[in-house]
Amino acid sequence: MTKKTINRRKAPLHRVFLIFPLLLGLVAPAQAAVTLTFYSRDMHVGLFNIQFPHGFVVLSGMTDAGVPVDANYGFTATEVTPAIMFGPVNGEIIGAKPGYIANARSHFSLTISDDRYQAVMELMAAWRDAPQPSYDLNGHNCMTFVRATAVAAGLDVSKASRFMREPSAFLDDVAARNSGTYYAATSPAASPAQPSAFMEFPSKGDPKSTATTVARQEVGEALH
User: Fold this and answer.
1) pLDDT tens, residue by residue, 18-31
2) Residue 62: CB partners within 8 Å, gap ≥ 6?
3) Distance of alpha carbon 101 from its chain centroid, rounded?
């Protein structure tokens, strides 16, 4: 066998070694990032179908440690009755079902660091575990909840009282104040939803063992 023949037989193997790093690049894991999106939507409640606006946030993606994130949070009265008009009532952190989110208005999204994500999760736990009554239509409601979340995410916000019952207008103002720090999030036109579109936020000690639930529990326990 000549030297030229041996070199020809080695050539394909050399090509494999050249291509292999390229293949590794194609199958490398996606860069970790958590996305925070702010939403608003009208909700109709009660016998007289009263309009009750709601603001909430959605978290998705993956932390730097590789923990998947897929959750949404809002704050509201435990029971939406005329009592909310006359003073503080019991409040709770709730999550919206997929259909509710799909028909809500997504105002904007931004990518947040793991430190910001941790700050947001600590905020969720603090609002969940706050002493009752914790909901006040005129001072501690879903709008102040999304405002606090925006602050935890590092955004500039308004404290104007005119936004107290207007989460949609408030989020439009946040978008205007923070132009260039977020990217647009598109959604279909929102239609009013019923209270059944919500689900309970996991309480402390919730037995479900999903990665997101575990993270919630750890944050909640760290506050006490």
Assistant:
1) 454 444 444 434 56
2) 30, 32, 33, 34, 68, 69
3) 11
| 103, 188 Cβ separation under 8 angstroms | yes
Sequential DSSP letters for 48-111: TTEEEEEEEEEEEEE-TT--EEEEEEEEEESS-SGGGGSS-B-EEEEEE-HHHHHTSEEEEEEE
Tokens found for residue 22: 């390229």
Share of the chain above pLDDT 90, in %: 55
Which residues lie closer than 8 Å to 14 by C-beta, 6 or more apart?
A: none
d(CA 206, CA 4): 70
Average pLDDT rounded to a whole number, residues 175-183: 90
Three-class secondary structure assignment of 125-194: HHHHCCCCCCEECCCECHHHHHHHHHHHCCCCCCCCHHHCCCHHHHHHHHHHHCCCCCEECCCCCCCCEC
pLDDT tens track for 64-83: 999 999 999 999 999 988 89
Q: Which H or E element spans position 198?
A: strand 198-200
Place of tokens 């879903």: 142
